[in-house]
Here is the input.
Amino acid sequence: MKFVIITHVSHCQYDGQYFGYAPYVREINIWLEYVDELIVVGSSQKKSPTAIDIPYKHNAIDFRKIPDINFTNFKNNIISIFKSPIIFWKIFKAMKNADHIHLRCPGNIGLLGCLVQILFPNKNKTAKYAGNWDPNSKQPFSYRLQKRILNNTFLTRNMQVLVYGSWENQSKNIKSFFTATYSETEKENVLKSDLSATIEFIFVGSLVTGKNPLYAIQLIQKLIENGRNVILNLYGDGVEKNTLEAYIKENDLEKHVFLRGNQNQDVIKTAYQKSHFVILPSKSEGWPKAIAEGMFWECVPVATKVSCVPFMLDFGNRGILIEMNLENDSVQIEKILNEENAFATKSKLAAKWSQTYTTEFFEDEIKKLL
Here is the structure.
């Protein structure tokens, strides 16, 4: 099978291999176990891989480089408009040669892929919509356009669109799906320290305003003010790092809040196992891997009511759905801290749910799609 991926993920070539963002590549490598030839249409930078990059595992990769595009300001809009026909043509040629077309959405490249795939109604296709599929959520026009095209059975044929969560009034194209990080062999009982000792929170994600890492810090600050012995470890990097460092220093939080930077999967796994809570006060998500991964290791999730998060947390039965109100959210956490049985119950329910979604289960579902 000749498998083509249309993706917005930025890559780099190093030591004869193509590297990309680890969670994405790790998932794609499971698909590639059933693929003879791989065509990747994506951008590539001249840089060395970082701690959060891993290589594709395939020995027949045809990488077709396309330029980056973005529509963040007038100048970039003009440049991107001129680049788009080149990208459109490269996507068309790749799809023409493919046996199976796989789109990664949402994103600017995903949008072009959605448009080009209309020209190939008889080819087998899948799309992974990694964003928020909630029809009622406020999203950029380009995201809403991608969703409309993918959901339309006239424009998009022979397609299975993998989305997070179950939503009403969707076409036959739409298939509720999930993602996975850990295998069956990794399941184990986790021994966490007593809540009377130091209570550990973990945040894993980009340090950007959309993920709201500052709110996570402020929530920890509120718990400290209430007399709780808590710490927060933040794993990730981003444009908000300097702002967060300044806030931590100005508020004397250096003994409670730690910026750990980007780390590999093994370091993150160990951190989850030590933590009591995993927190992600994000403005928008698809399937928040940090929440699912933390739950796998018996962390009680603390997350906003976006996308499929309420489903993941069983509407609060296996976690805490926060409202982005420091007073109310801290009260919710305090209730669990005051009742260790409540914490233990949510912790076990979180693990039981998350440990259903193993890489073995994921691979079985991928086989059915291919």
